[in-house]
Design a protein that fits this description.
About 30% of the residues lie in helices and about 20% in strands. It has one domain: Cytidine Deaminase, domain 2. It is of the alpha+beta class. It has four helices and six strands, in the order αββαββαββα. Strands 1, 2, 3, 4, 5 and 6 form a six-stranded mixed β-sheet that branches.
């Protein structure tokens, strides 16, 4: 199984365990050590308090002082529906960019295939270039 497939499987397993019915979403993040961390978005009553699914994994990577190599985020509308890949939002791209432009992230695509791209591809004109 490839790294990308392992990340997808880890997120699917978390969704199926955490959200037995209805909507479900999860993220999986691979650390430089090879360890995979999974996380979900917290349930909140006020949308302004919400966080993305991958934030828990990103924080865990910081806690362990480990570099992130890959990130994937998926969701399903309800049980029985296919899992769909979500590209990281702009804020999460910035969070992941802490580990550099070579972090691989799963991206949304018309075929819903596992497609990982370097952050540099998603952000070809990133502001950090002004400091090089």
């Amino acid at each position: 199984m490839t790294v990308e497939e392992e990340l997808f499987q880890a997120a699917v397993e978390l969704i199926e365990a955490r959200y037995e019915t209805g909507w479900g979403g999860a993220a999986s993040i691979r650390l430089m050590s090879g360890k995979i961390i999974t996380s979900v978005a917290p349930d909140v009553e006020l949308d302004a308090l919400s966080l993305c699914m991958e934030v828990g994994g990103i924080l865990e990577a910081h806690k362990q002082n480990q570099s992130v190599t890959h990130s994937l985020c998926i969701y399903r509308e309800c049980e029985g529906k296919p899992f769909k890949i979500l590209s990281p939002c702009g804020i999460c791209q910035e969070r992941l960019r802490f580990w550099g432009p070579d972090v691989f992230v799963a991206v949304t695509n018309p075929d819903n295939k596992l497609d990982f791209r370097r952050l540099a591809e998603l952000q070809p004109f990133h502001w950090s270039a002004a400091y090089r």
